Amino acid sequence: MNEILVGRELESSLLNKYINSDRSELVAVYGRRRVGKTFFIRQVLKGRACFTFSGAENATIKQQLMNFGVEYSVRTGSNTLPANWTEAFVMLRNYLQSSRLKRKIIFIDELPWLDGAKSGFLSAFEYFWNTWASVRTDIKLIVCGSATSWMINNLINNRGGLHNRVTHQIYIAPFTLGEAEKYFKVYKFGYRRAEIAECYMVMGGIPFYYSMMDRELSAAQNIDRLFFDEKAELRYEFDNLFRSLYKRSDSHIAVVKALSTKRMGLTRKEILEITKLNNNSKFTEVLDELEKCGFIRQYQPFSEAKRDIMYQIIDHFVLFHFSFLKNLRKPENDFWARTINTKNYEIWAGLSFEMLCISHIKAIKQALGIPAVRTRECGFIFKGDDCYSGAQIDLLIDRDDNTINICEMKYTNSEYPISAKYAKELQNKIDAFIHCTNTSKSIMLTMITSQGVKKNTYSTIVQKALNLDSLFLGI
């Protein structure tokens, strides 16, 4: 089957709009590694680019320039090799000036890999754009890179020669569950929503990982084949991922490892205590880079001070790695199939399902009938006092319509039964929250479960029950 671009309708429309504009454009496309940026651009361009070039990971300046020369030779027939990046961009400018195309589209992929130490690439790139390309009306320069923090800090938010020079930016986000379902349908997988959700909880919304799956195998078989079998293609994906994104990844890995065990996240101070990293600007940069790459998020707990801001892991694959792959000593055939009914699986599934809900707040709001209501999402921890025992709420949806949804998230293979003990715990959470926050807003206890809530004597405590189908809303 030919590769098909699934979703990305808005992004495709925007890129085509920029290509067809009446001015020169510098368009920065960014997003997490493996999310499908290059595939998206190539599918939209459909061979219309008059020059394409890609940086190579860990290549020397000489190798990068040689690769540029090869692409230049393919386009022009000339075997000239540039001595440096200034010369390379002069060659590119001369080639573009000779082109009769109405719109001259240039696509440079993996831009961060070209900006090596003392390479001179960024200054040459700035000069090319500022002094020549930007003053024309026919240059459409599209650049892309997986090192999201580099793209944002060095290009989009550049404070030097490229300050405010990027005319447009397009963020390629991971698929939502709805988009993942569409992908599996387009590629003729027979998976139901439970299997699609399990794949998502393992791999996140990363199309590249899905593209490696075999539609003749079950979801569990595919997970075993890709991660646990003797020739598992993605067994070392975590190391490759972080090494390609960060030059010194040890600190980044230490932070996500610490966060992978805490469902509500950790404060900056708590991360420092666990990782033993130094509390300095470099540590701040690590947190910032992890957030910009979509591995973690920061949020302010309900009614807490700014200094108590929490950092929480939100990348499904990273959580999966630390839950199962990190300590796997050797390949084990059928590992996943044998793990599904174990305690380790139950713990991981609970954490991953909560992440699934947090990353699909838009769908949850649609299911609640409040898509246009302004909200903030956070957690709540109460250590207890003389009146109420301690309470932890993993997700609060604080709404501008004078309502707060206290959300409980449970992953099970069948309808979730609320016991007398759990009903009492839920009531304590509600009472403790009201007691601690003194909120005047209405409280709506909301259960978000994979298979729904089983109706019994105690289920009436729930005002709103959502199941897995709700998370597939709003493709």
Characterize the structure shown:
The protein is α/β, with parallel strands linked by helices. 43% of the residues lie in helices and 16% in strands. It has a 5-stranded parallel sheet, sandwiched between helices. The protein starts with 8 loop residues before the first helix and ends in a 9-residue tail after the last strand.
What is the overall number of helices?
20
Q: List segments where confidence is low: pLDDT < 50 over at least 5 consecutive residues.
A: none
What is the 3D shape? elongated
Strand content: 15-25%
Helical fraction equals: 40-55%
- Mean pLDDT over the residues: 92
Oligomer: single chain
- Which strand order do you get reading across the main beta sheet? 2-3-4-1-5
| Sheet of most strands | 5 strands, parallel
End-to-end Cα distance: 24 Å
If you compute it from the alpha carbons, what radius of gyration comes out, rounded to the nearest whole angstrom? 25 Å
Instruction: State the secondary-structure class.
Output: alpha/beta
| Overall number of strands | 15
What's the layout of helices and strands?
Layout lengths: L8 H11 L5 E6 L6 H9 L5 E4 L6 H16 L8 H14 L5 E6 L1 H4 L6 H11 L7 E7 L2 H9 L11 E4 L5 H10 L6 H11 L3 H5 L7 H10 L8 H9 L4 H10 L6 E2 H8 L5 H12 L3 E4 L10 E4 L2 H10 L9 H5 L3 H16 L2 H8 L6 E8 L8 E9 L3 E8 L5 E2 L2 H18 L4 E8 L3 E2 L9 E3 L9
Parallel strand pairs: 1-4, 1-5, 2-3, 3-4, 11-13, 12-14, 13-15
Antiparallel strand pairs: 6-8, 7-8, 9-10, 10-11
